UniProtKB/TrEMBL annotation:
EGF-like domain location: 527-564, 938-976
Protein name: Contactin associated protein-like 5a
Every Fibrinogen C-terminal domain range: 563-615
Pfam families reported in the protein's UniProt record: F5_F8_type_C (PF00754), Laminin_G_2 (PF02210)
Keyword Transmembrane in record: yes
Limits of the Laminin G domain: 158-338, 345-525, 772-937, 995-1157
GO CC annotations, alphabetized: membrane
CDD domains: EGF_CA, FA58C, LamG
Membrane topology term: Single-pass type I membrane protein
Amino acid sequence: MLWECFAAGVTGMMLVLKGSFESSSQSSVGYAPHFSKINRRDGAGGWSPQVTDRQPWLQLDLRDRIEVTAISTQGRYGGSDWVSGYLLLFSDTGRAWKQYRQEDGRFVGNVNADGVVHHKLSHSIRSRFLRFVPLDWNPSGWVGLRVEVYGCAYKSDVADFDGRSSLLYRFNQKSMSTVKDVISLRFKSRQAEGVLLHGEGQRGDYITLELHRGKLALYLNLGELVTPGSGRVAVTLSSLLDDQHWHSVLIERFNKQVNLTVDTHTQHFRTKGEGDSLEVDYELSFGGIPLPGKPGTFLRKNFHGCMENLYYNGINIIDLAKRRKPQIYSVGNVTFSCSEPQLVSTTFLSSSSSFLSLPATPSASGGFAVRFQFRTWNPDGLLLSTRLALEPQRLELQISNSRLRLTHHMSAQQKEEVSTGHRVNDGLWHSAILSSRGLQVTMTLDNEPSSAIELGDHMEAKESLYFGGKDTMSCPSLNVSGCENPTVAFQGCMRLFSINSQPMDLNLVHQGRLGDYKELQFDTCSIQDRCLPNFCEHGGQCSQCWSRFYCDCSGTGYTGATCHNSIYEASCEAYRLTGSSSGLFSIDPDGSGPLAPTQVYCNMTENKVWTVVTHNSTDPVRVQGSTLQKPYIMKFNYSASPEQLMALVAGSEQCQQEVMYRCRKSRLFNTRDGSPLSWWVDQDGERRTYWGGFLPGVQQCSCSLEDNCMDMNYFCNCDADTDSWANDTGVLSYKEHLPVSEIVIGDTNRTGSEALYRIGSLRCYGDKSLWNAASFYQESSYLHFSTLQAELSADISFYFKTSAPSGVFLENLGLKDFIRVELSSPFAVTFSFDVGNGPVVLAIKSHVPLNDRQWHYVRAERSVKEASLQVDQMPLRFLEAPSEGLLRLRLNSQLFVGGTAGRQRGFLGCIRTLTINGVTFNLEERAKMTPGVSAGCPGHCSGSSSLCHNSGRCIEKNSGYVCDCSQSAYGGPSCKEEVSVSFDRESSVTYTFQEPFSVMQNRSFQASSVYRENSRARENIAFIFMTTQSPAMLLTVSTFSQQYIAVILARNGSLQIWYHLHVDRRPDVFSPRPTSLADGRLHRIRIHREGKDVYLQVSNGYIYKSVDPEVMQAGSKGFIGCLSSVQFNHMAPLKAALLNRGSSLVSVRGHLVESNCGAPADSTTSHPLSGKCCCCKTQSPLNNVSRHDSAVIGGLLLYFILIDCFGVNMKRVPDVTLFHCLSFSLSLFLPLSLTLLPHNGCPSDVFWGWGS
């Protein structure tokens, strides 16, 4: 490739001659486009279009393809006309255009008429034509524009492949073997399939670069044996590469390491195979894979398009072909200029109002035939509609549920339809043909078989054909059948319109000379792949529609809009604080960080909570016959990865690992020189020779540290080298060296010599992050840390307590961007940031003061999809990010905690457990060296000892503390006493909750206009139950809108979760495993749903997940039994009902006996878990709800009903009006009903909560 600049330096000003400009229109002769050169003052001082121009543009013809590196704009001289925002399009032909995309898609223009705004392009444009499309202009004036472009001349070697041709580069020798390859080229394609490059060798090596479904796929193998049926694995990158615009490709390989770059996206990978070299026999082919011995016959679909600047390891392939060098053999017709087909696209921009109408020209043969091509990401959209001559009949061709569907509407109630295709919203071009002949209408999609509808009369289209939508303004009345726009119009691209074999010229439509249109963008297809790059984290799968992308977090262990947030707690200590008991749990020590969750055992039976990680060899092992030259070696594989173990150990207060070591005539150290004969290896791979304690520099065993060795001449019992068994068991407690990764034993080869060892599990306790705190007592003081790394996502969480009315918790600034969390008033926490689209502010208002000197929890999150804020148990606040705009948060200053860079509005009080993107900040260490800040926080509620249990809240008092158990399902001084009730067959409790509307609504003030408010449906449920009866209903939640959630035991005792969130569909039922839970044992259930994703944890810590599971049928029955420790969100309704029996909010029916479900039962407090199965009379809480509807003004009305009955069969759950599900996104402020039906057993610790 040759570069030639017009002036010295990297860039030079291009000489744009008169006549190089064109425009969509001009106000008058003085406003003509040739006056639009920068600083030009003649004429009217610049270009301005007519005020009636619906889509104005200014175009430059650079005479040849140019490397454009920068652009400048200016308003119209001496006037009030300028452009403040615009798009930049480019084209080789002046017909098919592509938008140059910055991060936010648009360029910022001028703020006055004469100032010059210069933009250096982040990646250059190689094109002949440029088009400036004004989007915004001076509201007090009109569009006025003068422009200039900068860059260098661009020359290239081009080859055109017609889909039946290729170039073969033949080696000088039989084969070519390389350990390093660099292959570069640029291409533009007319099709989504085609081979760009191929080479292979007899050893099994191969390299293939091809387009597949619009993506670039690289197949590379270095000697790996490919078994029949195993297939080849490709690395794919980019998409939409069949857009007829140039794309650059670079392949760099050194040994097995490969970098594949397409345009601005790079993927690094390591290829498979035994060797490091690529061995290719005879030749490389470009543009296709010709079949040996059969010229013109190809194994795969050939490339159809143009390539330029094709280099293979420094060799210019196209240049050799142009000069007819003998190394190059041409197959078929390869030409050396790029043909430009006129495949001009039109973009339908709006999903509600876009349309294109074209006249239904008559056909000489009768009937009609319509052809066009479309591409989109949307699963639904109207493609074509027309009213027929016989009113009120009409035809509609649309995408419905990702299929193509043709509907013949004969009347308002009668229609006939057929469907074809699958996933036609895959972003690829699809061809649609709709034709009529006689009494039949035929629909054809691509090359699939046609589908037909029989008509009762000859079909004749009336007046116009509407593509993409309908013109509702032309309807004579809103009551006209078929005139209203459907819910979803087509949003995507169309091209190649043909009506009755006559091609439609859309230039005439654009000029107003043919048909009509609205919300269209001509001459370009503006589709973009919003999953490239993939913003879904932790392996989340990206899917998209036209304007947004979505992340499927199934099976990742993470949730949120971008799969950023872990669904697991960070430690066993954190699980204990939620009220959990001992068991297997998944923990995520780095939270939203890169490390995956890991499963551990949490031992909560002692005062300390121990985290236990096992490995592959926990049984005792006997060792004989080892020497120092041929030692015995055992490597330990833990249930967590080395990175996970390192994070766990680093975040724990203390870790230890027992090493049981017994020996007989087997020494640990050489008694002559003290050199080790056996040792173990730490987590970093370092050899360690101490066998107990926490002093790594001392080469001793535990007996030496405790002064009780059997022979005081030695530091270890084994070194006494006796014939009897000796014991050097010890506990390793220097946590920076743990866990033990390997043990080496080298002195068991003598007669009678042997050793017996066992390496115990890694055991850690404490969570250093939970109580890491700092106290700020000067408003001008702060802690500073390195710049926050949060370009695309950031989650910030911490606790605070203060008596000050306001103060900044943290702040990080950039040149213009910033992020800040602050207490803006005694009742409000504010989260604000700016990524370049303008400030975004989320705020949560509390109905109680937050400066009450008690701990409060704050969590703020920002991603490319949304921003959210949570304070304590108050509902989350969400704002959805705009689909277009800047994405990256660019910061360059230090992160300030507890204050600002200006030393103003500093925070006074305590902050603890500050965690950002999974990293906990060591506030205490930094506070020790900072004036005005001290490590730790005074008060009884600031230590690591758990004073209040089961989500109880520790409240500071002047002379001590008290536990606030109002938000816990338990009672007592420390929130540890169960609140339980035993029911007989006639008893029930109804409790009505009421909360202030302002608390439940909690709408943000000062929200940015580009972010829109959004509430994602989510629930959290947890409870413990015990029963021997099935089927049984455990819990239901319902709303007035005929929706419900039900957790039941099926007839076989298995757990089922029913979600009926869409009233027009059957319920979704999730049954995680067939094991019966009606076994008379306690089972703990935790359920979390976010959108479509359901996470379930049953008893032992295993997690199951479901997305829209298959509907199943189940029955349920009531019970006689006991219910304990019920919690709904942050309230405990059963406890409140028992404590407020005289209240008008409480209704008690029958005889209630306080019991103790969780403890061993006695005859006076609980019923036995045996007897007949019982069932429930149908009783609907909705009747009661309606009676109280008027009693609550603007608040949340909630019913909690405990029903116990006997002897009457209950209807199957889908038919019972009692259960109507809770959909938080729709019903947050509506009356709700929560129903827990006691089964014949003993549930306890029921918890329910929501996030938004």
